[in-house]
Design a protein that fits this description.
This protein is α+β, with helices and mostly antiparallel strands. About 30% of the residues lie in helices and about 25% in strands. A 4-stranded mixed β-sheet has the order 2-1-3-4. Strand 1, helix 1 and strand 2 form a beta-alpha-beta unit.
């Protein structure tokens, strides 16, 4: 099982940024069973990183690993769209 590397680009400490962070953590906790690493990058604090990735809008989520690289723009409130957009399969949960 691969570990997912997810980078979330936000602009400052705003309600929209907080919503995207919260939604991403919820999706990861529910669907990726701890097999993920999330990096939150504030484009106001690190503009060069955003420029290197050609970030035009925030919030933008980039799945870097496992390949292929995928992007989703928005507050990530629609879990199904986020998973489909990032080409992420839910991690099976162990039978209880």
């Amino acid at each position: 099982m691969d570990t997912y590397l997810l980078k979330l680009y936000i602009t400052g400490k705003t309600q929209r940024s907080d919503c995207a962070i919260s939604n991403l953590r919820r999706i990861c906790d529910e669907e990726l069973s701890g097999k993920y690493q999330v990096v939150v990058i504030d484009v106001l604090e690190q503009p060069q990183l955003a420029e290197n990735e050609k970030i035009l809008a925030t919030p933008t989520l980039i799945k870097e690993l496992p390949p292929p690289v995928r992007r989703v723009i928005g507050d990530l409130s629609d879990s199904e769209k986020v998973l489909m957009g990032l080409d992420i399969q839910s991690v099976p949960r162990p039978a209880q």
